[in-house]
Write a structure and sequence with these properties.
The chain is α+β, with helices and mostly antiparallel strands and 115 residues long. Helix content is 21%, strand content 34%. It has a 5-stranded mixed sheet with strand order 2-8-7-4-5, with no helix packed on it.
Length: 115
């Protein structure tokens, strides 16, 4: 009788443990975000953008706002050179490995001034 009662207590525990493992193993999206080495640069200077703060993202789609082609990469860091002067809004969309866009606010952006 005691063994039967133990089994009844163990099965729900095993099921709850599986659910907890499954829930925490599926990474939830976090915010897309990035930092940049500078916010004001001279024309033709290289600037580094770092998306390390985008949590568990695997793919990064960058738009530099300067009429260059969008760039998609799996690297956390990317360098870019602005060939024109002006103010440019750099945008990032970070995605998880399964293609889910990170967070509610799907784009992170930062204004860069080039003189």
């Amino acid at each position: 009788m005691l063994a039967t009662n133990m089994n009844k207590a163990i099965y729900p525990l095993i099921i709850l443990s599986f659910i907890a493992f499954f829930t925490t193993s599926c990474s939830k999206p976090t915010e897309s975000c990035f930092t940049c080495s500078q916010k004001t640069i001279t024309r033709d200077s290289m600037i580094t953008f770092d998306a390390s703060c985008s949590g568990n993202a695997s793919y990064f789609a960058w738009n530099f706002g300067d009429d260059t082609n969008d760039t998609t990469t799996t690297s956390l860091k990317i360098k870019h050179k602005f060939a024109k002067t002006g103010q440019f809004i750099v945008k990032l969309v970070a995605k998880r490995k399964d293609g889910v866009t990170m967070g509610k606010d799907t784009k992170a952006s930062e204004m860069i001034t080039v003189y």
